[in-house]
Structures are given as C-alpha cells and as structure tokens.
C-alpha cells in the first residue's frame, strides 16, 4: 500500500511542476505566491468537515502552524524555480531534500540510519545530480541559474517541512492536518502575494487562472496522500518518492513541452530508479524483520509471564 501511495505522490509532484511551468511556457505569465496561497485558502474550506475540528494538543497546534508556514515558503521558492527554470532541473534539485531530510530527522527525531540506507540514498541523489549536469534542455526556462537557486532553497525547506509534517500528522487524519496547517500560511501568503503580485491580477489570462486553480487542487490531493504516507513510513521515504518524480517529469516534458533529450540521459535515470527501488526493498526487509523480532519478543514475554504465574499458583 505504501508503494502505491509513494508512486501517486511522485506522479502528482511531476504534474504539479508541469502545471506551474505551463503558465510560463504557454502564456508567459506566472503568479507563484498567489498559486501557493490559493492552495492553503482551499484547505481552509476543510474546516467545514467535523474531522478537521478534532481535539489537538498545544504541541500539535504549534506543529500545524509551523508546517503551514514552512510548506508555503518551500512552495514559493519551488514555484519561483519553475517560473525561471525548467521542470526537470527543478525536480532534480529537489532530490537533494533526501539527504537533508536524513539530517533533520536525526536532529529533531533522533532517527538513526544504517550504512546501507545512507549509501543507497546518496547514490540516488548522485544519479540525480548527474541527470542535472547532462540535462542542458532549457525549454520554457527564463533564467535557469536563478531558477535553480530558488529550487535549492526550496529543497532545504521542503526537507525540514517534511520532517515537521511527520511529527505533526501523528494521530490525525489528512483533512484535519490540511485544515489546521492552512491559517498561518494563508496570512503570510496573502501579505506576500498582495504586495508582489496584486498589480498583475488584471493582466492575467483566464487560462492562466485555470492552471493556477488546477495547481491548488493538485496540491490538496498531493498533501492528502502525503499525510497517509508519512503515517505509514517516514520523511526520508517521502523524499525518495519525490526523487522518482524526475522519471515522470522526463516523460511529461517530452510530450507536453516537446523537449528532445539526449539518448545517454537514460543512464542516470536507470541508476536513479535502481537505487530507489533497492532502498524501498531494503527498507521493507528491515521493517519486516523488526516487526518479526518484536512479535517473537512479545511471545517470549507472554510465555515467561505464564510460567511465573503458574509457579506462583503451584507455590500457593
């Protein structure tokens, strides 16, 4: 089940990037801050559902607000990246969120990783970087260097945000999480988009507004599934799923933006897929062993308890 959720997130992430780049590529217009704000505005509507108003601790309330502000900031930087760079380059730079997520989970949660996981994660990122170096296709790119800088900042914020999201989504459903992370982000986003983009509203074509709305809806579905995935796995697994987005974006760019990638770019893609698949396989293997060991330990504890009780009965 977790692999289906992971691939759904990877595909959605690629579609989100393609949707944003389409506003610039086809219509020469972009409202990155407004697009990010609209997603959180739609999330506020989820307060209409009873499940969004379940009781929360003060710690969870703080985590929800932090999630919203961090995710809004990350989305803004990534949206700016999509505005100035191309979708494949931005998504590949986003792959660097995987090692950053490992660092943040170690600092904030105390999560430890064996050398096999670290090696596979590093190799996955390495193949991603090779892909970026080989990908000189700049279709739809306005200023690829500036866009990549924005994307790099966004990837760090995304890594930190995914760890905070993992901490905040414990014991809550997706609707509750989405609704409660929205207020802080809406306030910050409204101020930023109002100051920087309000004067552009009247010049934006209806097709661009339609794409921005599509982006907001895609983001809601993306985050809904993300909460389900984080409750079953962890932030590093989530970021590796984002890394697989590069494969989907590669295909989308060919058909949507008519790119003509060089034939040898397939090699880092194969390496990337192989390393991520091995990571998922190894992660499953370790988790199953952990569950099996726990089950054996519980059985031994239960048997020991029965023996102690029986001895006490015999003594009496």
Automatic annotation (TrEMBL):
Transmembrane stretches, start-end: 27-49, 61-82, 88-109, 118-134, 140-163, 175-196, 208-230, 237-257, 263-282
InterPro entries per the UniProt record, alphabetical: EmrE-like (IPR037185), SLC35_F1/F2/F6 (IPR009262), SLC35F_Transporter (IPR052221)
Keywords: Membrane, Transmembrane, Transmembrane helix, Transport
GO cellular component, one term: membrane
Membrane topology, record value: Multi-pass membrane protein
Segment forming the signal sequence: none
Coiled coil: none
Primary location group: membrane
Location of the protein in the cell: Membrane
Molecular functions per Gene Ontology: transmembrane transporter activity
The family this protein is said to belong to: Belongs to the SLC35F solute transporter family.
Protein name per UniProt: Carboxylate/amino acid/amine transporter family protein
């Amino acid at each position: 089940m977790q692999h289906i959720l992971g691939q759904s997130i990877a595909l959605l992430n690629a579609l989100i990037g393609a949707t944003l780049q389409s506003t610039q590529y086809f219509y020469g217009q972009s409202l990155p801050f407004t697009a990010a704000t609209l997603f959180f505005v739609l999330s506020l509507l989820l307060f209409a559902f009873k499940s969004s108003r379940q009781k929360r601790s003060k710690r969870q309330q703080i985590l929800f607000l932090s999630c919203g502000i961090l995710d809004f900031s990350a989305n803004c930087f990534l949206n700016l990246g999509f505005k100035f760079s191309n979708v494949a380059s931005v998504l590949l730079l986003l792959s660097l969120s995987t090692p950053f997520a490992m660092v943040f989970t170690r600092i904030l949660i105390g999560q430890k990783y064996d050398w096999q996981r670290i090696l596979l994660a590093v190799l996955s990122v390495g193949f991603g970087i090779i892909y970026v170096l080989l990908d000189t296709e700049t279709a739809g790119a306005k200023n690829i260097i500036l866009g990549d800088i924005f994307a790099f900042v966004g990837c760090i914020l995304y890594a930190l945000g995914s760890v905070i999201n993992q901490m905040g989504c414990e014991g809550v459903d997706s609707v509750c999480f989405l609704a409660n992370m929205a207020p802080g982000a809406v306030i910050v986003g409204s101020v930023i988009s109002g100051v920087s983009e309000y004067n552009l509203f009247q010049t934006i074509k209806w097709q661009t507004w339609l794409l921005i709305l599509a982006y907001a809806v895609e983001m809601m579905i993306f985050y809904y599934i993300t909460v389900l995935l984080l409750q079953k796995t962890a932030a590093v697994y989530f970021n590796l799923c984002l890394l697989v987005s590069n494969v989907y974006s590669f295909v989308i760019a060919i058909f949507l933006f008519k790119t003509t990638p060089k034939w040898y770019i397939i090699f880092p893609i194969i390496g990337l897929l192989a390393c991520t698949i091995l990571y998922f396989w190894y992660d499953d293997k370790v988790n199953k062993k952990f569950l099996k060991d726990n089950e054996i330990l519980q059985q031994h504890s239960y048997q020991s308890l029965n023996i102690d009780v029986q001895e006490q009965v015999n003594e009496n």
